[in-house]
Structure formats: structure tokens, C-alpha cells
Design goal:
The protein has helices at 6-16, 20-33, 49-57, 71-84, 115-119, 125-135, 153-175, 178-190, 194-202; strands at 39-43, 63-68, 89-93, 106-112, 136-147, 206-214, 219-226. By secondary structure, the protein is α/β, with parallel strands linked by helices. The protein has a 7-stranded mixed β-sheet, with helices on both faces.
Length: 228
């Protein structure tokens, strides 16, 4: 699925989020660099928007790595990094359930609209989370920007209707891949609430989890600190 959709991925993201995804990623990138990490991983980096933004915000030497399973996504990410003149960025093709990095290597792991893919009805969910925890140093952080469940029942109903009646048909039409955007609509509308996701992170090795809602709670940024 993620090998087929890269040519249209960015443009469809802009369209289905009304352009807001850029601002959301920027906020997540600022959160990633706020503690001035030296080594950052953009996990499931896709076409590299978060990676490039993190690298561009750092006003000091920082090592940024992006990892994704889809090589076509990574090819686009490498082009973006080159165009932006970001030389401290490297991209690796790999499996999130077996990360090719040493334990406690990163000060921060950022995940942009991919944590849902790692955990929603995914048989490897526990592996994915344990690998994230493994590669973060004690006291390091994980920053997740992801779709969420609005607390208001009315807004939540409208949000779910939007996914079913706009995101799915538009994404399917423009990408030519109905399955990918059917999955997106289904996973987003059934994903964890903020309370459930915070509990999942706290039970997985993180000692502090903060949540900031975006756009009435349709999305959100989670910042989780690994136990020291």
C-alpha cells in the first residue's frame, strides 16, 4: 500500500487536511527540537516532511535519521532533503519492528501520522512500541503527531463523517488505490482516544505523557518521556 501511493501522497495529504498537516508537523518538529537533542529519528518518515523540518529548525549540530519501509517514499524524502540543502539527514529502508539502531541511541523519536499504522489492528504493535522504547535513551522523548478522537460527540461525528464521505473518496480517486484510503478512513475513525493512547504509552515504558489537541481534537501531539 505504501509503495503504491507515494507519487500522490503529499498532494493528497494537503487536500484532505485542508493544508493543516504542514502546520501540525511544524509544531511536532518544534517539540522534537525543544530539548535540543543531538540524535533524532523520524520513524516511518514517509516522504520526509518531518525529518526535513526538524533538520531545518536545529541551530546546532544535530544528527537526523529517517526510516521507512517504503523505498519509493524514501526516494522522495532524499530529494526533499537535497533540495533543502540539509546535509545532516540520512534515510534508511527498514522494518519498524526490528529497528537497525543500537539501544538508547536517540535522544528523540518523532512519528508523524504513522503511529496509527504501527498500532491499529497490527499484530506487531507490541514489537513496534518496544523498539521505539529500546532506541530512546533514558530520559529521552518520543513526539507523536497523529489523528485523534475529538472529545465533543458532535465534532467527533462530523470528523468521522468527513473521513468517510470526503477523505476516502477523494484519496481513492486521486491515488487510484481505494484500499489505502479505505484503511485511512477506518483506522482514523476507530483509533485510540487521547486517554487510551496516553495509557498505552505509560504502560510501555514512558513515565510522563503530555497531550496537546489540534483542530478541536481531530488530531493531537503527544510528548512521552522515557523513564530515566
Amino acid at each position: 500500500m505504501f509503495t503504491d501511493i507515494p507519487p500522490h501522497y503529499d498532494s493528497i495529504n494537503r487536500l484532505i487536511t485542508l493544508g493543516m498537516d504542514r502546520g501540525w508537523r511544524l509544531q511536532a518538529a518544534r517539540e522534537c527540537v525543544s530539548a535540543r537533542p543531538l540524535k533524532v529519528l523520524d520513524l516511518c518518515c514517509g516522504t520526509g516532511d518531518l525529518s526535513v523540518t526538524i533538520a531545518s529548525l536545529a541551530d546546532y549540530p544535530m544528527e537526523v535519521k529517517g526510516l521507512d519501509y517504503s523505498q519509493p517514499m524514501l526516494d522522495i524524502a532524499a530529494q526533499k532533503a537535497s533540495a533543502a540543502g540539509e546535509n545532516n539527514l540520512t534515510f534508511t529502508q527498514g522494518d519498524a519492528s526490528r529497528l537497525p539502531f543500537p539501544a538508547e541511541y536517540f535522544d528523540c523519536v518523532g512519528i508523524s501520522f504513522a503511529f496509527r499504522n504501527l498500532t491499529y489492528k497490527n499484530a506487531l504493535a507490541k514489537n513496534h512500541i518496544s523498539e521505539i522504547v529500546r532506541v530512546i535513551r533514558p530520559g529521552g522523548r518520543c513526539v507523536i503527531v497523529e489523528s485523534s478522537q475529538p472529545p465533543s460527540s458532535l465534532i467527533r461525528a462530523l470528523d468521522h463523517l468527513y473521513f468517510r464521505c470526503y477523505v476516502y473518496p477523494i484519496g481513492a480517486l486521486l491515488s487510484g488505490n481505494k484500499g489505502a484510503y479505505r484503511y485511512l478512513a477506518d483506522s482514523a475513525t476507530h483509533f485510540f482516544s487521547p486517554t487510551e493512547l496516553k495509557e498505552l504509552l505509560l504502560c510501555s515504558g514512558f513515565q510522563e505523557v503530555a497531550y496537546r489537541p489540534l483542530f478541536f481534537g481531530a488530531a493531537g501531539i503527544y510528548t512521552a518521556k522515557k523513564s530515566s
